[in-house]
Amino acid sequence: MSSRSSSLVRTVLPPAVFGVAFIAIWELAVKAFNLKPYFLAPPSKIWQKFTENIDLVWGAAKVSGTNALIGLLLGAFLGMAMSFILSRFKFLNNLITPLAIALNAIPIFVLVAVLNNMFAITSEVPRRIMVTLVVYFIVLVNVAKGLTQVSPTHVELMKSYAASDTQILRKVRIPNAVPYLFTALKISAPASVITAFVSEYFGGSQNGLGSRITSNIANSKNAVAWGYVLGACLLGLTFYVISSLLEGVATPGGRAKRTKEGR
Amino acid sequence: MTIVMTTVMTTQKTSETARRIRRAVLFVVSLLAVAVAWELYKAVGPEAGGKIFGWKLLPRSNNNAMPHVWDMLMRYNRPELRGSDRKIWSVVLAGAWFSFRLALVGFAIGSTLGLGLSILMARFKFAERGILPYLVLSQTVPLIALAPLVVSWGGKLSIAGWTWPRWMSAAVLGAFLAFFPVAVGALKGLTSAPSASLELMDSYAASWWQTLRKLRFPAAIPFIVPSLKLAASASVIGVVVAEISTGLKGGIGRLIIEYAREATGDPAKVFTAVFGAAALGLAMSGFVTLADMYMMRNRPKEASA
Amino acid sequence: MSAVEITNISKAFNLGSSNQVDALTDINLSIASGEFVSLIGPSGCGKSTLLRLIANLIEPTSGELVVNGKSAKQARLDQDYGMAFQQSGLFEWRTVAKNIELPLELKGWDKAKRQARATEMLELVKLSDFANHYPWQLSGGMQQRVAIARALAVHPSLLLMDEPFGALDEMTREHMQSELLSICRASGTTVVFVTHSIPEAVYLSNRVVVMSPRPGRVTEIVDVSIEGERNDATRDNSAFFKGITSVREALRGVEMSDHVRGIEDR
Fold first, then answer.
1. CB within 8 Å: A261 and B193
2. Which CATH number is C181's domain given?
3. C: neighbours with 3+ CB pairs under 8 Å?
4. pLDDT per position as a tens digit, B32-66
5. Is B157 in the A-facing interface, judged by CB distances under 8 Å?
6. pLDDT digit string, tens, across residues C25-42
7. Which domain holds residue C96?
8. Regarding the domain with residue range B74-295, which homologous superfamily does it belong to in the CATH classification?
9. Which residue of B has its CA nearest to A9?
10. Which domains does chain A have, with CATH numbers?
11. How far is A177 from chain B (nearest CA, A)?
């Protein structure tokens, strides 16, 4: 077996084994203990409801997904822009960084309750603002780290070439920050999806996956609700996979270059 | 030589504290800046909301949608409900304290679980490759779906006459979000021991468990410390979301939802609860920071950027 | 009885595959008790691999290893040797004294005995004042002294050292060499010492084993006989310079493309 296919097997086989075992145990447990659907729905039923309602699930996913995507792109853009500004003006950096660190500790999604009041009841804007905020701070903190934590030797070298600050930014700081940006995106992608869902719990428009799940659970339609949950997981997974692929494209040189773990 | 060393250490410590104080002061300044920006928008923004390039992007700036900052602060001193004696600050404080304790329990359970998983994954590479993807996946499951499940399972659970209290479900959901950063961070730390040190332990014919206790675990502490911070805020999020979806009485999540419903009549009220939730998050973060400082007390300090 | 008996030892990495590396082939070496033997050679000659074979950190592909009259594995299990590396490998979360106690803890010594032995070791390397300091508070040379103290804590009859002074500056290095010699002389320890430095090898050893790469083998064993006790004056001794010349010549005789890589010639 070639080493590439054997490493593929090594990566795929263990999770496949655990996954299949988990689903099998789940299904058997429901059947064996004769669990009622409001207690725990079996995977077979969830799959059935999922495929039955696939149009509805897809529609709801589009709403939540759009919110997440807009917030992700806008938040990433603003975060990057702000980090450039902060790397230039140390005073602003000292002002904003403590705020960013503090905001990291707070469940800021509760702001949606406030935002909902500031916009029309059917608007999706509060959710998008929420996602933007969450992604903005993640990207800001990480990219700022990447721009400022450069090797002093590199900076000394550039100074010996009488390079201007902008040239140092372009040739040293930005390339240094690229891996940090992608780490931030890999964290932000699932975070944007989750934030989009959580933002739907506070009232407002009821078209997204989050609200669908809530209403179905409230009506004790567990299998249907979990069909939507499956859709939600798939949405989150898609975002994560896309961001991982983007990372792969943007940082050539393989995994060895991107991670530096030993065992 | 020893005197020089001690002097260097003391100067390091005082500059650490000076840095912390400066950060706290700047934090307060930045909060004031946000308040100023809020009021500025109120002064110049459109009363009924507005459009940028045809999109309804500008929020309403009237007093109903955006109360004055002063009104928000003053609201704390007035009663919660018409005719009630309890001032709102005591209600919000009680709610935040309730949720804080739940978050603490969730954090403790989650961290322990995360550590246990990381040790399992460090020991058996098959476990790491098999379980880690699902740990990542588990974090994408919306809590809103898990919360009712946990509540109904808990309701059925009774061991030797002890029944599952309703608040435990919220703590469990906090633990569910908290375990992940700890599992990932601890795994990274446990596998970070330099190969020379591993060879050293081999040369002592140390067992895997001895190597874990004496080398891998202490070497993992610098990785576990930042992940505990993440776990603390994750636990708060889990608890608040659980409170919202299960309607758990007594917590800050429930207060936020209740006050949000009254927002048209009493716009400043919801802010009191939101600030309460923020204070809750900061309290957890402060608690974990203290634990961090204790655990890293004898380590060399990182050079600041 | 010899301390280390190496018979027809070979070690190949990635055996059977296309990128097989013959790190060592047919090594034969007998090290007497109390001897100080250096292994020197260009990068890739297998000297570190040989050291790790003696330490039983890796297994040979073929051949026999007898350490202290036992199998290498038993010697390791019995903690018959102490080991020191180029990176001092001290645990940054333990004080100097607790670092020295590490092998004793693993063998189940009780607290009082451990502390007594650690104190004794600290006196030996002249670092008694730093028992409660942390490694990062000490200079590189001091950290290596602690590493040596740790290696000697179990009073082993054999000391295995892999370029322990490689990361130190020249003056500290010479100082540490003298210290090491006086410690080993006092305890009669056998030492197997891997180095890149010809003067270091000649200063410290009774015999210098010159190795060459591709495949790793012993080219020559140079007997270094210098009259009397070795100290700083030895470095000006003509026998010392003769020894250096012999070793250098043996290294030059190594078949290699162009030049000998990785050897210090000072």
1. no
2. 3.40.50.300
3. B
4. 888 888 888 878 877 776 666 666 667 777 777 77
5. no
6. 999 999 999 999 999 998
7. 84-155
8. MetI-like (1.10.3720.10)
9. B129
10. 42-250 (1.10.3720.10)
11. 14
